[in-house]
Amino acid sequence: MTSEGISLSRTSRTSRTALSRRRVRHAAAAGTALLAATLTACGGGGDAAAGGGKAELKPKPDMAVSVNLTGDQVKAGEPVTVTVAEGKLALVKVTDGKNGELPGKISDDGRTWTSERNASPGTDYKVEAQNTDSQSAGTQFKTSPADKVNKVSINLPKGSTVGVAMPVSLVFDNPVTNKAEVEKQLKVTSSDNTEGSWGWFKDYSGKDRVDWRPKEYWKSGTDVKVDMNLNGVDSGKGGGLFARDYTTEFKIGKDRRMEVSLDTRKMKVSEDGQVVETIPVSAGTPGGQKASWSGKMVLMSKEGTIRMDSQTVGLGDSYDKMVDFSMRLTWSGMYAHAAPWNSGNFGRANTSSGCVGMSDADARGFYAKVQVGDPFEVVGSGSKGNAEIGNGYGEWNLSWDDWRAKSALTGGTQNG
Q1: pLDDT tens digits, residue range 194-208?
Q2: Is residue 316 domain-resident?
Q3: Over the stretch 18-49, which tens digit does the pLDDT of each residue have?
Q4: Max CA pair span of the chain
Q5: Which domain holds residue 246?
Q6: How does strand 112-118 pair with strand 79-84?
Q7: Is the overall model pTM greater than 0.85, yes or no?
Q8: What is the CATH number of the domain that holds 97?
Q9: Among 10, 163, 179, 328, which residue has the fewest nearby CB atoms (within 10 Å)?
Q10: Which residues does residue 129 pair with via DSSP β-bridges, in sequence order?
């Protein structure tokens, strides 16, 4: 009886163990089905559920991007475009070797990023991109040096203070036929949002020139900044690429204006709208090449004591002397200056070779007060007319509409 009892006891334990194992296997099978269903739902497919097969997790492909500029000898002068093969772009960064960054925008469909500026010549670029799944990709390229580089001469040194008539004036070393493309990169910002426009014409030197003129004279105290984002911009046929940006800042000083009357032979000096001084003068001899230019001019520079030689301005051997307190009005040689040798004609007759002369004492005091950029207008009879726009700063002789028509963007001046 004892043996039977032990045997029964063993049989009972075996049955319970087998049952327990069957229950575990059933539970495991149920769990596997649940996991498969879960993967199918996450994967968005129905093959495993429909056919009873196994679901598979497919790894996402690596992020792949293509760049329009590749290699070590890329031609500069065009925007950089970055395109993603799959998915959407979240971030693109294009930097040069000096940590400068090309700004740009992602397209509405998220597939392409385009730089707002062109790639510069002779520059190493690094491209870094990231998609919306936080995957990253990158590449590098290098632009070749420009075959020809264009440069800019700016009339306003950084930090200068100038008069209310001073325009921003840029003269280019080489021709600019892509005028609209260049003008797009030029920006004037002022503290009082002064309205103005760019205008294209030929400088007195024969080079291409673009000036920015306010609609009206500047207001005294205005702060002005000029940004010329030209690096990588193509000047067009015969001009070459620009290889750098330019910038300058200046301030508008006292509102001082001069008016010379050829009829009364007097110059009125006004400050803030009030006449503060009247100076007797002798201007150019009426008729012929010795007459003065008339119209609105701008005091271009204060040159002090200089040698004036009539042969340099096509007037033969009329004069060759050192002249004090010289203030330039045109490139062709019209000045306001001291002329003590002509003292008998101040306020009485116009007998000079085209300049506006005055006594030593008047010239000394006048020279000390005026600033580059002050407007200087000559009125009355006996002149030889207005100087060409490029012969100094002659844009103030044009109406606002005529001036705006010289813009390549808002007027009639186009490429060429």
Answers
A1: 999 999 999 999 999
A2: yes
A3: 334 444 444 333 333 322 222 223 333 444 44
A4: 160
A5: 149-253
A6: antiparallel
A7: no
A8: 2.60.40.3780
A9: 10
A10: 92, 137
